[in-house]
C-alpha cells in the first residue's frame, strides 16, 4: 500500500532507523558476490588445512550425494542414520579421544544442543566473556542462570562457582575466534573439578590445528575422554566441510539424541557434508603434518606483521588478528587488501567482544612462504595510519 494511504504506522519503519544508526557508526554489512575462481589469496576463510577443495574431499562429497541423495530428508530420529553418519561419528570420537560423538547440521546447532541439553533453570552456567555467539545463545536458550566471567580467567570461574551447590557447567571456546588466543583449559578443568562442575569446550578452532596430529585442544590438554568434559566442534573449518559435532561420554551423547532440540527437530547433516568431513578426517589422520604446518604458517604471518610494526595478536592456533583504529578504517583496510588481491576478514562490533575492530587473518597449511610474504606485504602497505594517541 502506498505510504500516503496508510492510516496505521508502518510496522517496519524501525528497520530504517536501525539501518541509519548502523550507517552512522560505520557498521553496515553487505553481501559481496564470490566467484568460483576468485583470484584473491584467501586469508579470510577458516579452511585451515586447505581441505575444502581437496580432490578427495570433493569426490567424497559428490559420491555421498549420489549414493544417499542431496539432503538427509528429515531428522535422523525420523528417517534414520546412514552408515556415513555412523562412521563419521565413530571416527571423529576415536580421533579426538572421546567415547562418543554426535553430528549436527552446523557447529552453531551443536553448541546450542550441548549448552541447552546439559542445563536447566536451576543450573549455573559460567561463561567466558569472549565466548562465541553460539555458546552465548545456548546460555540464553537454556534459561539457566549465567555468570559471565572475565576472559580466560580460571580464578573468576572458581569465584563464580564458589558456594553454588547445584548443577554447574563452565563454558568456553578452546581458541577464541576473534584474536586466536587459547583458553587455559587445564586450569579451567582443575577449577571445575574442585567444584564438581562440568566443563564444556567449543573446539571449533582447535580441531585439526592443535594437539597431536590435529586431535584438538582437549587432546592437547590431556582432557579428551574425561568423564566430566564435553567438547563441541565444527566440521566447517579445518575439515573443510559443513556441520558440527558434540563429543563426550556415551551417556551425554545418548542424552543429546533424546533431548537436544537442534538434533531432534533439525534435518540431519547432509550426506555430502558427512562424506566430505569423513574424507577430510581420514586425510588428517594420514597426513598429520598438516596441523603442524598451519601453526607454522600462523606464526610466520604474525612475525611478519609484528615485525612491520602492526598491532598483531600472537597466534595460539591459526588465527592472527590486527587491530584497526575504527570500524570505518577496518572496512577500508579490508577493501584495500581486496583491491591488492588479498581476502582478509573484517571484524567489527557486534562480532568483537571488546568493541575494537580488526582485520582477522587465517593461516592455511597450504600457503607457501612466497604467499605469506605477499600477504604480509599487502596488509602492511594498506594499513591505516596509526593515531598519535593510540
Ligand atoms: C568458536 C566457534 N564456534 C562455533 C562456530 C559455529 O560453527 P558453524 O559455522 O559450523 O556453525 C564458529 C564459527 O562459525 C566459531 O568460530
TrEMBL record:
<dbReference type="GO" id="GO:0009102">
    <property type="term" value="P:biotin biosynthetic process"/>
</dbReference>
<dbReference type="Pfam" id="PF00155">
    <property type="entry name" value="Aminotran_1_2"/>
</dbReference>
<keyword id="KW-0093">Biotin biosynthesis</keyword>
<comment type="subunit">
    <text>Homodimer.</text>
</comment>
<comment type="similarity">
    <text>Belongs to the class-II pyridoxal-phosphate-dependent aminotransferase family. BioF subfamily.</text>
</comment>
<comment type="pathway">
    <text>Cofactor biosynthesis; biotin biosynthesis.</text>
</comment>
<dbReference type="InterPro" id="IPR015424">
    <property type="entry name" value="PyrdxlP-dep_Trfase"/>
</dbReference>
<dbReference type="InterPro" id="IPR050087">
    <property type="entry name" value="AON_synthase_class-II"/>
</dbReference>
<dbReference type="InterPro" id="IPR001917">
    <property type="entry name" value="Aminotrans_II_pyridoxalP_BS"/>
</dbReference>
<keyword id="KW-0663">Pyridoxal phosphate</keyword>
<dbReference type="GO" id="GO:0008710">
    <property type="term" value="F:8-amino-7-oxononanoate synthase activity"/>
</dbReference>
<keyword id="KW-0808">Transferase</keyword>
<dbReference type="InterPro" id="IPR015421">
    <property type="entry name" value="PyrdxlP-dep_Trfase_major"/>
</dbReference>
<dbReference type="GO" id="GO:0030170">
    <property type="term" value="F:pyridoxal phosphate binding"/>
</dbReference>
<protein>
    <recommendedName>
        <fullName>8-amino-7-oxononanoate synthase</fullName>
        <ecNumber>2.3.1.47</ecNumber>
    </recommendedName>
</protein>
<dbReference type="InterPro" id="IPR004839">
    <property type="entry name" value="Aminotransferase_I/II_large"/>
</dbReference>
<feature type="domain" description="Aminotransferase class I/classII large">
    <location>
        <begin position="40"/>
        <end position="377"/>
    </location>
</feature>
<dbReference type="InterPro" id="IPR015422">
    <property type="entry name" value="PyrdxlP-dep_Trfase_small"/>
</dbReference>
Amino acid at each position: 500500500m502506498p505510504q500516503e494511504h496508510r492510516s496505521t504506522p508502518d510496522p517496519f519503519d524501525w528497520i530504517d532507523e536501525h539501518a541509519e544508526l548502523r550507517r552512522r557508526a560505520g557498521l553496515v554489512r553487505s553481501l559481496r558476490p564470490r566467484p568460483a575462481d576468485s583470484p584473491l589469496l584467501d586469508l579470510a576463510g577458516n579452511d585451515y588445512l586447505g581441505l575444502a577443495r581437496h580432490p578427495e574431499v570433493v569426490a567424497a562429497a559428490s559420491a555421498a550425494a549420489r549414493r544417499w541423495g542431496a539432503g538427509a530428508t528429515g531428522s535422523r530420529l525420523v528417517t534414520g542414520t546412514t552408515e556415513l553418519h555412523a562412521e563419521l561419528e565413530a571416527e571423529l570420537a576415536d580421533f579426538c579421544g572421546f567415547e562418543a560423538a554426535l553430528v549436527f547440521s552446523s557447529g552453531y546447532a551443536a553448541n546450542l544442543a550441548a549448552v541447552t541439553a546439559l542445563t536447566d533453570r536451576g543450573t549455573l552456567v559460567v561463561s567466558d566473556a569472549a565466548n562465541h555467539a553460539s555458546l552465548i545463545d545456548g546460555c540464553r536458550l537454556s534459561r539457566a542462570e549465567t555468570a559471565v566471567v572475565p576472559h580466560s580467567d580460571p580464578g573468576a570461574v572458581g569465584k563464580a562457582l564458589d558456594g553454588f551447590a547445584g548443577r554447574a557447567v563452565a563454558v568456553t571456546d578452546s581458541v577464541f575466534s576473534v584474536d586466536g588466543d587459547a583458553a587455559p583449559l587445564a586450569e579451567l578443568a582443575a577449577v571445575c573439578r574442585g567444584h564438581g562442575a562440568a566443563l564444556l569446550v567449543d573446539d571449533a578452532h582447535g580441531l585439526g590445528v592443535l594437539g597431536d596430529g590435529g586431535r584438538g585442544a582437549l587432546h592437547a590438554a590431556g582432557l579428551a575422554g574425561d568423564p566430566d568434559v564435553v567438547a563441541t566442534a565444527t566440521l566447517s573449518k579445518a575439515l573443510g566441510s559443513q556441520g558440527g559435532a558434540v563429543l563426550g561420554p556415551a551417556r551425554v551423547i545418548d542424552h543429546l539424541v533424546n533431548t537436544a532440540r537442534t538434533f531432534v527437530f533439525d534435518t540431519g547433516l547432509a550426506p555430502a557434508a558427512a562424506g566430505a568431513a569423513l574424507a577430510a578426517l581420514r586425510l588428517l589422520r594420514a597426513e598429520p603434518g598438516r596441523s603442524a604446518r598451519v601453526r607454522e604458517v600462523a606464526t610466520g604471518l604474525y612475525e611478519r606483521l609484528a615485525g612491520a610494526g602492526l598491532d598483531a595478536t600472537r597466534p595460539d592456533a591459526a588465527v592472527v588478528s590486527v587491530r584497526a583504529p575504527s570500524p570505518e578504517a577496518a572496512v577500508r583496510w579490508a577493501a584495500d587488501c581486496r583491491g591488492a588481491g588479498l581476502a582478509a576478514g573484517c571484524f567489527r562490533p557486534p562480532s568483537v567482544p571488546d568493541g575494537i575492530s580488526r582485520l582477522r587473518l587465517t593461516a592455511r597449511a597450504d600457503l607457501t612462504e612466497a604467499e605469506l610474504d605477499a600477504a604480509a606485504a599487502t596488509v602492511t602497505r594498506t594499513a591505516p595510519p596509526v593515531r598519535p594517541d593510540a
